[in-house]
Specification:
The chain has helices spanning about 5-20, 40-45, 115-125, 130-140, 150-155, 180-190, 255-260, 275-290, and strands spanning about 20, 30, 35, 55-70, 75-90, 95-100, 125-130, 145, 165-170, 175-180, 200, 215, 220-225, 235-240, 245-250, 265, 295. It is α/β, with parallel strands linked by helices and about 300 residues long.
């Protein structure tokens, strides 16, 4: 590579890096809800009949380029993923209704700048099925939203909720800096504007080969699991329902093929690819210790 061209390329990369921004600078506060729990106690709780009902709703269909490779392969390739966006409603018999992720408002395009609007409409072919407003009319206002991560396709529906609805996220969730956030962060900022600080789960340090966990209601019914990598604060949720335990992975796994090990994934938005692979390994190991577990990857469905 000629010297002048190499210098220009280095300058371009430097300028691009200087344009990187965080996903969110919204204020945060330690969550009062939930307490750290060890894996043995969590597994014991999941061996008993569950009491929390869970309803899963596909709120939109879309397609996006998922970068994948076969296990052991060196080269990545682009595979268009037939995907959906989900909202999960959980109802605790004592503590009431909550959402896991928030879907999309009916006017979701109004929250996008022209670049993101074009990408989502043309490249991702997003087709909304139902807005968060209609879900709230069906289920009633939630007492809070447990967020898997702060990407717009998981939280933009917060804009349709009461302004004082508590929102719970993993630690350092908005801290990652990326040039992608120049386009993807503005709708997140708009949706959170004027709302109370985000409640950060108080995860304990994890034991080697295990995931840090929070017992959300203190009765072994719903657990938050720290699965960093896709974003620093990425969080999975483990819900003990009358139909058995169910795992909502968020984008720790986008697809059923990633969960089963058919492909490795790298969408390009990962904060830390080696760390997400470790989180995936730890999540699979935990799942193997839970008989009859139902899996819900971030953008597809998978039954046992």
């Amino acid at each position: 590579m000629p010297g002048p061209f190499r210098a220009l390329l280095a300058l371009g990369l430097l300028l691009l890096g200087a344009c990187a921004t965080t996903l969110s600078d919204h204020p945060t506060a330690p969550a009062v809800l939930g307490a750290p729990v060890g894996e043995a106690m969590m597994l014991d709780s999941l061996s008993r009949p569950g009491v929390v009902t869970l309803e899963k709703t596909a709120v939109a269909d879309w397609h996006f380029p998922n970068t994948v490779r076969e296990p052991g392969a060196k080269d990545w390739r682009i595979r268009q993923l037939d995907a959906q966006i989900y909202v999960y409603s959980i109802v605790h018999p004592q503590f009431g209704p909550y959402l896991i992720d928030a879907g999309m408002p009916a006017d979701y395009e109004a929250w996008f700048d022209p670049i993101l609007k074009g990408v989502v409409r043309n490249d991702y072919s997003l087709k909304l099925r139902i807005g968060t407003e209609a879900l709230v009319a069906r289920w009633g206002p939630p007492k809070g939203v447990f967020v898997t991560h702060l990407h717009y396709d998981h939280i933009l529906g917060i804009a349709a909720l009461d302004a004082d609805t508590p929102v719970y996220v993993g630690p350092h969730e908005g801290d990652q800096r990326s040039v992608f956030h120049l386009v993807t962060a503005p709708p997140v900022t708009k949706a959170l504007k004027g709302r109370p600080p985000l409640n950060q789960w108080r995860f304990p340090p994890p034991a080697p080969g295990h995931l840090a966990a929070i017992d959300i209601f203190g009765d072994g019914s719903v657990f938050a699991l720290h699965v960093p990598g896709h974003t620093p604060g990425s969080t999975a949720y483990l819900v003990n329902t009358p139909d058995g335990p169910q795992l909502i992975t968020g984008d720790a796994f986008h697809s059923r093929e990633a969960w089963t090990g058919q492909y490795e994934e790298a969408t390009g938005f990962e904060a830390d690819l080696p760390r997400i692979h470790q989180s995936q390994a730890d999540l699979r190991a935990l799942a193997a210790r839970i008989p009859g577990l139902i899996i819900h990857p971030g953008h597809q469905s998978l039954l046992p």
